[in-house]
Amino acid sequence: MFRFLFDRDTWQEVYDSFSKNKLRSILTMVGVWWGILLLIGLLGSARGLENSFNRLFGSFATNSVFVWGQSTSKPFKGFQEGKQVRLTLSDAKKIEENVEGIEFVVPRNQNQAQVIRKFLSGNFNINGDYPLLDQVQKKKLIHGRFINQNDIDNNKKIAVISEEIYKQLFDKDENVIGEYIQVNNINFKVVGMFENGNVNMGPTTDIHIPFTTFQQIYNQGDQIGWMMITGKPEYDIKQIENDAKLLLKNLNSIHPNDKRAFGSFNLGKEFAKVTGFLTGMQFLTWFVGIATLIAGVFAIGNILLITVKERTKEIGVRRALGATPFEIKRQIVVEAVFLTLVAGLFGIISGGWILIILDTAFGQGADATIVNASVSIAVVFIALIILVILGTLIGLIPAFKATSIKPIEALREE
Amino acid sequence: MLKISQLHKSYPIGDSSLHVLKGIDLSVEDGEMVAIMGSSGSGKSTLLNIIGMLDEADEGEYILDGLPIKDLTEKKAAVYRNKFLGFIFQSFNLINYKTALENVALPLYYQGMKRKQRQELAMFHLEKVGLAGWAQHLPKELSGGQNQRVAIARALAANPKLLLADEPTGALDTKTSYEIMEFIQQLNDEGKTILMVTHEEDIANMCKRIVRLRDGVIMEDKKVKQVRAEQYV
Fold first, then answer.
1. What subcellular locations does the record give (chain A) (predicted)?
2. Does A407 touch chain B (CB under 8 A)?
3. Calpha distance A388→A36 (Å, rounded)
4. A357-407 pLDDT, tens per residue?
5. What residues make up the domain containing A239?
6. Most CB contacts within 10 A, which of A166, A270, A365, B140?
């Protein structure tokens, strides 16, 4: 059945009919070429934008919400309004145990402090953290390690610092691991250094120390600054936020309708807005691309119709010589698919060039708007399959047209 | 070889219909060379087309080499045409973007013959019509007589039982016409059965039998003494 695809004559025929109408064939192919180019270019740019957003949110688990205590706005159970609310470790533990769909609850503490090393000093954020933080807000470590459970258990005086702090407190090319920095006049051994990460929000001047150590040096007891709650991917983060807040109100004797007792920032919700926009853009891209593609393929069908009309007599001769209608149809469909495929391949290649140009123009540097604009191989394959299907379908129209007239009438045609 | 009885054919023209063939009876034996004559509109081309399975009769019987030709699908008709018939047209009907060799090889292509074998066979037939040296030329680079010889080689390529020629000399000057006729006579001498439509008396007289049509019926069907074409060349 498919032997004819490997037959030299089949392609000789295709080449002949193409070279007979070079200009017209090429002009027609431009339609498909343009469609595919648009599809690849737009999809690639959309992916580039998505990548740049992902880089923005990259280090965070996106299905997460931050919750911190404020002051109450309603009196409840004998407490006056205006009561200060501080979250505690047990709150965090209860949320983890009782709210459905929770993946992690990460309690955190933060303070500003003067940090001194030799003759250099600076004011930095001191964070008291659990090893878990590395799961929800990935640190790209350049040297060393992040805080581990042993550090927590033994209240170790170790610190993980950002690259920015290294730049401010250390000399160039100086060794960082094992060196000591002074926080609140207490020596901390540096065990790790991480990349600055997202530059859009300014370089991070964070020092992470074990949570338990933080508790100790700032005398915090069980209190925590805020907690970061991440939900399992299949759960709605908005619901988790509501459930967690309600539980917190219950635990802290706060009126259930008190809206101001807890502050929160729902990263998942913000992220959903962005991804929604990106999804919309991707849909639009596919829509525009496919629509243009269909228009291009129709142009090819049109040109083949004209070609078939012009070759009516030739087709008549072939049939007189013993070509079956199937053989005639097959040849025309092969031509249609060939034209669409070649135009499509050129479109994919030039689409790739467009993406390369986009990348050199907008994709360089850390704050690029388009990051790694690209399309996956799967998309290219889907596009090619769509092309083959459309080419076949559209080729059937002239194919049936070619064999619809009787050979005798075809021969009479001048 | 060929037997036709009570063949009728009419074409619709607007609301009425034109009765072109009104009961044709004709039989042709192996090795005959028959000229079908008649003025335009007499139905001679229609008859040839029906014999060539390019057209279908409304009524009547047509038996080709013992095979009844009736209600053929397009596919079957194509296979029969390829196997049994060779066509020679007035305007040659060569494919203009294919070389002489490729044109001759075309019927063999539709037989599913391998490329190499096909080209050898086509070359053999081109040699036979004396155009071996022109194998790689396009039809537009050849003269009318040469083109018709290529067309004859093409008609012969599939070794058909019956050659059908529709005014084979209609587009040629007298001298070239006689050359072509000489060639067709040679084929007939070798045993090919030939059926040709013509309206030229001198050409018809170079056949062995003349069938005259008028208004869709056979007026006359007689054997003639063949005039050899080589004496004019």
1. Cell membrane
2. yes
3. 13
4. 888 888 777 667 777 888 888 888 888 888 889 889 988 999 998 888 888
5. 64-270
6. A166
